[in-house]
Structures are given as C-alpha cells and as structure tokens.
Specification:
Layout lengths: L11 H6 L3 E4 L2 E4 L10 H5 L5 E3 L2 E3 L2 E2 L9 E7 L5 H15 L2 H4 L25 E8 L7 E3 H13 L10 E6 L5 E3 L16 E6 L5 E7 L6 H17 L15 E2 L17 E4 L4 E4 L2 E3 L4 E3 L3 E2 L17 H6 L12
Parallel strand pairs: 6-7, 6-9, 8-10, 9-12, 14-18
Antiparallel strand pairs: 1-2, 3-4, 5-13, 11-12, 14-15, 16-17
Length: 339
C-alpha cells in the first residue's frame, strides 16, 4: 500500500454509520462493505503496476526484506475499556484463522529468491501460525490521543517490564484500543472518520536493543465485530508478508512483498472480492481475501481448518478459568501471566 495515498470517500454519510476505510501502516485501503458490488478486474489494474513473469502477471514483487514465517499473534487490550465483544471473540477468531487454509496459500510469498533489485532474499518460508495469548495492559502512557511513536514506546515498555512476552521473529502484537481513543500516523491519517480515516494499520520497528518488533493497531470505530475481524485479518496477512512497510509509492528494502505502486497483499483485493470466511469446528470467522500471485486473482476462499480441532465456543462466559479451558483442550493459549 502507498503511504502517501489520500482517500476521498464518495458517501460520507454511509462512512459515518459503518466505516469503510482501513489503513496499513499507514497505507490506505478500502474495507469491503457488504453493500458494495465487487468492481471489475480492470479497476484493480488501474492502481497496480504489473510486471510479467512467464505467462503469469505478478502484482506483488519481492523487495528483499523479511517475512513472518509462522506468525504468533499476541492480542493486547489497551486498558480495561476495550469492547467486550472484541475481548470475548478475538481470541477464538485468531485461533481459527491462523491454523487454517487461509494461511496456507501465503507460502508462495517465501523469500528464498532474489529481490527485484538483485539482493539476496532472507531464505524464509511462510506457514500456519497460532495464537500465543492475550492480555490487558495498564498503559504507562495515559493519553487518549495516541501517535504511532507513542504506541511503539509503550510496546517497548510493556515488553521490557514483562507485561508482554518478548518479541522474536514470528511475534505479532495485535493491539485493540478502547472507544474514545484516537490514533494518528505520520502521514496525517487518523482514526476513525473523515479524510484519511483509518480502521487499522500495521508496522514494524527496531527496539533500542536492536530487536524487530511487529505490531498492528485496531482502534474502536464502532464497527461491528464482523468488520473488526475483516480488518484484523487484513492487517495480519499484510504483516506476515510485509512486516516493515516503507514510505511512498516506490517500495524498496526493507519491505518484503509489495506492488510497484505500494499496495500490499490484502489491498489488491479491496473492492474486487467480497469478504469471505474461515470455518472451524465451533466458529466461522470473517476475513478479507488476499492477492494470489500464482493465479493473478484474489484468493476468495472460503477456507477451512484442515484438521478437526475443538474451538472455544463464543458463548463461554468471561468468568471461566483460562487455565481450565486450556487444560480441557478447548483453547490452546492462555492469557499472558508473565511466565
């Protein structure tokens, strides 16, 4: 996606009721709304620069940076005010999609190839991931108007204090903000409505200790959980395939997979493919399709978990012990306890 893109909303009244835009660090993208009819492939071609590779048109090029091989999502609730439906449902959502066919096709975005500028790749493969856990932090920064720099500093503090698990090359912290919190990015995009409004973004940075920290941020824009889950899937697959976004519409190292116009893997299916879903044993999760370089089209799904696994029922109350659920095999990760 292009960090310099400015989005104009044609139907502001509709946007105010159900936000239609999401950003990816801080690129612009349109979240598919169910009332929108998919546009033609020609509409996509107008915003993507292609290069030919044999008989296949490749929308995404490799620019030499790393990917996330087997993503371990850790969910971070920013304080106690995060919407209760998100707190209840986002863990089962990630458990469902990360160990499913939704992730399998991303194997094509391995980095055991040379980059477009000839530099050596990082030699990584991409496979299924898992939910590492979730927790509610007590932010040191008590501001309700947050910048991306503030969020990065808070992440470093929470990791160093032991409130969050340490980062490794596969860790992705997905941060959910309470209602009333605003987040703004360096290109002047901000949550949740108006010009350059965002529903979510992802980013990566180097900590003071030199470690890579990858994260996504989802503000509360009064969207339905279905829309929140679609944005969450969008940012997750883009973080996996391009964890270090760079500025502008001329992508370069340390980016990984990106179009020549600055769009990431899920951006290319905005307004092209309708939302899809992943089916698990006790869950059906809404996801946004991603671009399939091998077929030159959106991988529309639906997807399934290839092997049966019991899932946490969405009706389970908040009073249940997470340890007992884990021991019963109903929910693999527990809330982070600092161990």
């Amino acid at each position: 996606m292009n960090k310099n893109i400015v989005l104009a909303f044609a139907c502001l009244s509709i946007t105010l009721v159900a936000p239609l835009a999401a950003f990816s660090a801080p690129y612009g993208e349109f979240l598919i709304h169910e009332s929108q009819a998919p546009q033609s492939f020609q509409a996509l071609a107008q915003k993507v620069s292609y290069r030919s590779s044999g008989d296949v048109k490749r929308a995404l090029n490799y620019y030499g940076g790393p990917v996330i091989s087997h993503v371990k999502v850790f969910v971070v609730f920013w304080g106690i005010g995060v919407d209760s439906q998100i707190q209840l449902n986002i863990g089962p959502f990630y458990q469902n999609i990360l160990d499913s066919g939704y992730m399998d096709g991303l194997a094509q975005y391995a980095t055991n190839i040379s980059a477009i500028d000839g530099r050596a790749g990082t030699g990584q493969t991409i496979g299924r991931g898992r939910l590492l856990g979730e927790t509610t932090i007590t932010p040191k920064n008590q501001n309700t108007n947050l910048s991306d720099e503030m969020i990065q500093k808070e992440l470093e503090f929470q990791i160093s204090s032991g409130a969050l698990p340490p980062a490794d090359a596969d860790t992705l912290y997905m941060i959910y903000l309470p209602a009333g919190f605003q987040v703004s990015l360096p290109d002047s995009s901000h949550s949740c409505w108006g010009e350059k409004a965002l529903l979510g973004y992802h980013e990566g940075f180097k900590s003071q200790a030199g470690n890579s920290i990858f994260y996504g941020v989802i503000p509360d824009c009064t969207a339905s959980f279905r829309e929140v889950s679609a944005v969450s899937s969008h940012e997750t697959v883009e973080a996996v395939t391009d964890p270090f976004p760079t500025l502008g519409n001329s992508p370069s190292y340390p980016q990984a997979w990106n179009s020549a116009s600055g769009f990431e893997v899920a951006d290319l299916c905005d307004s092209i493919a309708p939302l899809s879903h992943v089916s698990g044993s006790n869950a059906e999760s809404t996801v946004e399709p991603w671009w399939d370089n091998l077929t030159g089209a959106c991988a529309k799904g639906p997807w399934m978990q290839a092997r049966a696994r019991a899932n946490l029922s969405l009706s389970i109350g908040r009073g249940h012990s997470w340890d007992s659920l884990r021991q019963a095999g109903r929910f693999t990760p527990s809330r982070w306890d600092g161990r």
